[in-house]
Write the structure tokens for this entry.
Amino acid sequence: VTAAHCIWANKGRVRTCREPFLSMTPEECSKNRCPAECLRLGPQDINVYLGVTDRTSQPRPRAARVRTIFLHPNWDKQSPLNNITSGHDLAVLELVKPVTFSTTVWPICLPASSDRPLV
């Protein structure tokens, strides 16, 4: 699980993503050199390091590869300003291989749809 705005965003520090780039997929953006304000990451662009709490520690474990990215269905891919506090800033990453749990790698608990929001 990660934040959707880390995978797909339409606003840079100064400029906003515009057409024709706004509606492009990560693959299309890669081929057409989308500007930096059009953030589009595909599975091949992400390294997942399981059980790491210090990004500077060595040796770095082998990265888990991502098969599929599932953005929250209410994440607006066209909007330059998604409200990250509305509960839609969520992306689930499906990994290529199953995860082996250990003393440093544990599953997370996601809320049920019937749970009351904290915000």
User: Anything to note?
Assistant: The beta strands are 8-9, 39-40, 66-71, 91-95. Residues 87 and 113 are 12 Å apart (CA to CA). The two ends are 19 Å apart (CA to CA). The longest strand covers residues 66-71.
